User: Fold AAA+ ATPase domain-containing protein from Fraxinus pennsylvanica.
Amino acid sequence: MFVVYLFLVFFLIIFSIFLVRLFLHRTALIFVLRKWGEWIEDRVHVHQHLKIPEFNENCQQNQFYQKVSVYVNSLDSIEDSDFTNLFSGKKSSDIILCLDDDQTIKDTFLGARVSWINKIERNHRSFVLKMKKKDKRRILKPYLQHIHTVSDDIEQRRKDLKLRINIDCNWRSLPFGHPANIDSIALDPDLKNKVKSDLETFIKSKQYYQKLGRAWKRSYLLYGPSGTGKSSFIAAMANLLSYDVYNVNLSQVSDDYHLNMLLQQTTSKSLIIVEDLDRYVAEKSTAVTSSGLLNFMDGILGSSLCNGRIMVFTMNSKEGIDSALLRPGRIDVHIYFPLCDFNSFKSLASSYLGVKEHKLFPQVEEIFQSGATMSPAEIGELMLVNRSSPSRALKSIITALQSNGRSSGGGKFGHQLISESAVSSPDRSSTAEDAGGVAWKETVVPKEFRKLYGMLRLKTHKKPGSINHNHEMIER
Ligand SMILES: Nc1ncnc2c1ncn2[C@@H]1O[C@H](COP(=O)(O)OP(=O)(O)OP(=O)(O)O)[C@@H](O)[C@H]1O
Ligand SMILES: [Mg+2]
Assistant:
């Protein structure tokens, strides 16, 4: 009896606590209680105030005030502030929250709680940072650095991206309106995630590179047959990072000095791309010497300018390329872009035709497994022109794949296949890549063997997704 009584009391206590909490949340009284709590806590600590005025004593604008303003208005806690202004952004659908005058906003950094007050006194605006004295020594310096980084990042993302191309030895600027995004590119999802996180880690690693004494730059090589999405991927990288793109046309560069000058004129946090590097090397169609090119890739000539720069090179094949050009440090990440497999095909069908399943899919899968293939560009094109009828689109792809399988380089898409088989045998010197060697076999072996290989694969019932061995990303 006593135990039941005890249990009832216990249950009642828990239930009452639950009701009180519910009441506090529903009536927003919880915020009042929290404020009282913070008020009491404030009284028992000594605080330090730092003022960031909008103008300095010479009436010049204080750049740091602008940064703080961008930072403070980006904090999630702005939504909890008692009074905020709403403005429309660049796009009419954008709404921007802005702290009103004399409002306080909280922030936390490295476990310390700080607050910002947006003051206006005699028509002069300022932000006042309030932090506990005991936290000041520990967090002030890194916190101010954090504000710099975050606001620079936000500003970078807000601006309209530019594409710059070199004509003679000058950059010409155009608006960069390429809509590509990494998700819309048919490529192994794991590989895409790895690249995304590699990029995101890199842009946050300025201090790490500084500590190592290395130029803060990262180089990527995108290689693979024509029409597999290399250029689209570069555009997607630029959109992901909100970086301007500098497209270096090496045939327009008159010598090493001018290549250096072009590099000097690029801005920090930009994407510098050299497309079809293998073509320049093979055809010797540039006046830049190989040492000029290596120095450009290393960024020695402008190491102070390597401020967060990302270099991207594309090639159809690494065959015949001097290994010094591709060595670790010069090219940090190698990404292979393969011809279409069934997984990429499904991803294209989903984005181009809005079709995730179709009765013709098993037939398409069988043809892919027999070794027939086409580039994503070709398949995308067939889907695009037949987008009003998914069945027609799939039938035309089946016909094209079958004609590829039968003819050796002839037929409607023969030109692409010729270039496919002309694409390189693997660079056998790079042993790390051999780990993912399946892809290479698929691109270089004769069609008869590919068919046999496809049949073998059919028999072994490869699990979906394992075909992604075709992709490789080598972190060096
Ligand atoms: N993997 C892919 N996913 C989605 N679309 C693709 C893919 N590959 C190519 N495409 C489409 O095909 C077209 C050509 O692609 P892109 O120019 O990126 O190929 P590329 O690899 O740069 O070719 P090249 O080596 O000839 O320059 C683009 O319109 C793109 O949308
Ligand atoms: Mg391209």
Q: What stands out?
A: The chain has three domains: 43-158, 163-336, 342-475. Confidence is low (pLDDT under 50) at residues 406-476. The radius of gyration is 29 Å. The pocket of magnesium ion (ligand 2) is lined by residues 230-231, 275, 314 (CB under 6 Å).
